[in-house]
Amino acid sequence: MNDLETFSALLAPEGQSLLAELRDHTPSDELAAATRLRRTYPAPLVSAALGQAQLRQRAVAKFGADARLMYFTPNGVEQSTRATVAAHRAARLAALGVRTLADLCCGIGGDAIALARAGIRVLAVDRDPLACAAVRANAEALGLAELIEVRCADVTEVDTAGYDAVFVDPARRSKARGGRIFDPEAYAPPLSWAVEAARKAPVAALKIAPGVPHDMLPEDAETEWISDGGDVKEAVVWFGTAVDGAPGPTPGGRRATLLPAGDSLLGAGLPDPEPGPVGDWLYEPDGAVIRAHLVADVARQIGGRLIDPTIAYLTADRLVETPYATAYAITDVLPFHVKKLKALLRERGVGIAVIKKRGSAVEPEELRKKLKLGGGRTSCTIFLTRVGGAPSMLLGHPAADAP
Fold first, then answer.
1. For labelling, which of 129, 258, 263, 362 has a CA lying 20 to 30 Å from the CA of 229?
2. How far from each other are the two terminal CA atoms of the chain, in whole angstroms?
3. Counting beta carbons within 10 angstroms of the beta carbon of residue 400, is it exposed (0 to 12), middle (13 to 18) or buried (19 or more)?
4. Each residue of 314-368: pLDDT tens digit?
């Protein structure tokens, strides 16, 4: 039985009954569950159902409660868009007036689901028959089958004329090498093909890795870096104008969007701020802000400066609230010295240390071992970084904990 036949068997009544029995399955019970279920169900079907149960559990982090109803492939769980990010993108496309969209390289359908829930009719295309089967099953399971048409095909051969928008999510992992692909031209399909396909559509969005070099980004598009809960998830290259007259993407623009709140900062093309002495407050910009090269924009918001020309930490003499950076009250700015740090923490009864690094060769966990913190309840945030080119350690605590 091949993968597609096994997947089809899971959708049949016997497979559905088996999956229902495994709904509350825990990995620690897998051997006992497999032994018990094989008395009633064929062994290959039991193995497939257990595998699907494991994938659903892994997918909860991305899809929440929907994961218990959805169908996944191993690659699909790994490469699919987090539901919160997909919902943000779908909402932006809907706001641009998009009502029909071709989702190219759709995988297991994470984006297609979000788009359909935003009221957009979707043509979901993938060349992997198993992925296409998963999209169909997911659309059916979530009550979206009327809005999602699935086509198993090479995306480079699909005619997208007549659709309001195109979304392309090229494969960025190599099956042969078993790892991430960092060269956008090695994506499948290549970024250059995706860009040309996007330029033919009224509106288009291309999902790419957030570490893409800025000099590879098309200047006739806006690039948006998205973080969720402080973790940078992806970058999206936006083309076109609004279908119904709403403001479209800004050509050449660089944007940072922070989920779940949805705060979005469009860069003003500012020069890097000047470095200066560390003030009373240190600001750690969100990763999306850093990736988008918008640290200068945040510096202008807070009236801040860099602590070093090569380090993305900002400092200011007063506290200014901003969603784009986390603020810390700084108590000490010292040259890096392990013994002095250890003595200082012991003197203050610090038993809890959060160690952050940027521009330092010191590994936080190695330093933690050397500090041998006691059991005190006092906490401290330690920044290992450079100030004016010199290895330094800054001590403080989050602004939320400030007196």
1. 362
2. 65
3. exposed
4. 999 999 999 999 999 999 999 999 999 999 999 999 999 999 999 999 999 999 9
Sheet holding 203-208, edge to edge: 148-152, 121-126, 100-104, 165-168, 203-208, 231-240, 222-228, 254-259, 263-266
Q: At what angle do helices 13-21 and 3-11 cross, to 10 degrees?
A: 80
Alpha helix (H) residue ranges in 266-384: 287-291, 295-302, 338-347, 364-371
**How far is residue 391's CA from residue 307's CA, in Å, rounded to a whole number?**
12
Q: For residue 147, what is the DSSP state?
A: T
- The answer, yes or no, to whether residue 291 has pLDDT greater than 90, is yes
Retrieve residue 137's tokens. 């099953």
Residue 365 to residue 307: CA distance in whole angstroms: 24
Angstrom distance (rounded) from CA 380 to CA 398:
9
- Output the CA–CA distances (angstroms, integers) from residue 274 to 11, 64, 271, 302, in the order listed: 61, 43, 9, 14
For the residues 41-45, what does the mean pLDDT come to?
Answer: 89
The answer to whether residue 1 scores a pLDDT higher than 50 is: no
Q: State pLDDT tens for residues 51-105.
A: 999 999 999 999 999 999 999 998 888 889 999 999 999 999 999 999 999 999 9
The pLDDT confidence band at residue 297, using thresholds 50, 70 and 90, is very high
In a 3-state reduction of DSSP, which class is residue 365? helix
Q: Which two tokens stand for residue 161?
A: 């004329």
Q: How far apart are CA 45 and CA 41, in angstroms?
A: 7
In percent, the amount of the chain with pLDDT more than 90 equals: 78
Average pLDDT over residues 221-239: 96
Whole-model pTM: value is: 0.92
278-294 per-residue burial string, b: 16 or more CB within 10 A, e: under 16: bbebbbbbbbbbbbbbb
Residue 335 belongs to what H/E stretch?
strand 325-335
Q: Which residue type does 62 have?
A: K
Q: Is 234 helix (H, G, I), strand (E, B) or coil?
A: strand
Q: Which of 403, 256, 397, 248 minimizes the C-alpha distance to 329?
A: 397
